[in-house]
Amino acid sequence: MGVSHQERKQRTRRAVAGAGVLAVVAGGGAYLLTGGDDSAVTQETGAIAPVIVPSSLAPSPAAVPSVPVSAPPGSPSSASPASPASASPASKAAQKPKPAPTTADPERVRAEINAARAKAAREGHPLQRPLATPSQAPVRNAQSLAEETRELDGGGTMRIISAKYDLSGHRERLWAADDGKPVGGARCTQNFRFAEGAKASVRPTMLLCWRTSENRSVVVLTVVKTGSPPMTRSVNALNTQWDRLG
């Protein structure tokens, strides 16, 4: 049976339309796969067998230029992939590589620390290291360590530290810059040193009292805003806690 001119024209249009869809799918696939810098991925696209892509997954007309119906099958315009510039902003955002997490350069950090220390030293604030506890064997009854802070009139505080082991060389006891003077069974001082190599100085508004032994210890630090710390009250609090430890 002969085919009319009109039927041949319609078949040609359907064939061209089919080629246009393949070009769109291939173009979209090529763009997505070559969005990165890996050329090997682009080479593999030629080895992938043709697949049927649901219409809902095909790129929108705005993302890829449409192929003119008048273009003959096999022409460059029907097979050329879409350019990256024609992709939608959402596709470009999806293909933008995420920046790799950065880590601090140890050498740079060390240099910044050294520079800060040098600057502080030039301004009269040299680096000071905290007083270190002498290396000792693990203490017994470490769980017995207790601390209580009491408020004083005028905004002062009294801190009472106690334990069923020797607190010499521990905690606030380290701050005493001398052996103190005996007061009611304890020893007290107002001479303090807070850092290694720092100069000891008398603190008129601070008082440190202590009483230590191998099996029990009490340290009392009293600080007031103005005037002198109450020595008698501090020693009484110390002795009361000492008796509680038995």
Short description:
It contains 6 helices and 10 strands, in the order H-H-H-H-H-E-E-E-E-E-E-E-E-E-E-H. The protein is an alpha+beta fold.
**Major β-sheet annotation:** 6 strands, antiparallel
* C-alpha termini separation: 121 Å
Task: State the share of residues found in helices, binned by percent.
Answer: 25-40%
Q: Spatial order of the strands in the main sheet?
A: 2-3-10-9-5-4
Overall 3D shape: elongated
Secondary-structure element series: HHHHHEEEEEEEEEEH
Rounded mean pLDDT is 70
Total number of helices? 6
Biased composition (Low complexity): 56-69, 76-97
Keywords: Membrane, Transmembrane, Transmembrane helix
Transmembrane segments: 15-33
Region (Disordered): 56-142
